[in-house]
Hints:
Structural class: mainly beta
Number of strands: 24
Shape: globular
Number of helices: 0
Largest sheet: 5 strands, antiparallel
Amino acid sequence: MACLLAACSGEHDHAGVEPPASQGARSFALASGVGTVVELTWIEGPAEGPFELRSAGWNGVERTWGAAETLARGTNWFVNFADVPRSSRLETGERLTVWLERGAASLHASTASFLLESPVPPKERTHSGLVGQEFVALSPDKNGWMAVWLEGDAGAHDGSGVTRLMAATIRHGLVRGEAFELDPRVCDCCATALARTDDGALVVAYRDRDGNEERDISVVRVEASGVSKPLEVADDGWRIAGCPVNGPALAARGGELGLAWFTLGSDGGTSLFDAGYRLSSVRALAGPT
Length: 289
């Protein structure tokens, strides 16, 4: 069972808050809701299915959970600890949620299933699938959302292919804009993250990959004028001949971005938390690059 850490008023103490999820629930993820609400999504069901995608909101003022609801049900889902469902809600109340379903071609063939919910009764739900998208991250955008994801060639998961970082807008009605490339070669199966800055640009964080198999964290900035070149956040020098399945986390508040990630680095990472885990304020990315 997962436990949500909620900040206590006036102090920096933290208390564990049990979500309204059943025993054995997994694939938890948090997202900002409307106002002071934080929304939690997760998956319930036996190991081989059928599965339910569930959601509940935590009210930070009242310090209570809202009623849990089922967003989707299915059997042929690709449920795992790394590529978990993501959701993003607009200020108008519309919510876009994405989860992974298995494809027919192979174990690693997958479809990103998107669900769009209207905020007012009757709560209309529109469903659509996009083949080949994995590790999708979402953020509100003008007239809808921006989505980023990993898209690989055949063989990308076994190291013989190449995985790219891609992006596209998703408009109301689940109409996807033309996809565009952010980075031509990235780590194959690490989660992506994105956050919006005060000036309306999006910053995307991800685990990069170079020709020497160094897999450090990079960021790109997406705005109306175009996409910046990838910027390596820190020269960790983590060289590993395989994906560590461990991506960054990114959040924005005011003029700052908070970025957290795991690395073992070139020194072997004798301590996972002292030497290997860093929290950085990347204020420079909040302005033009």
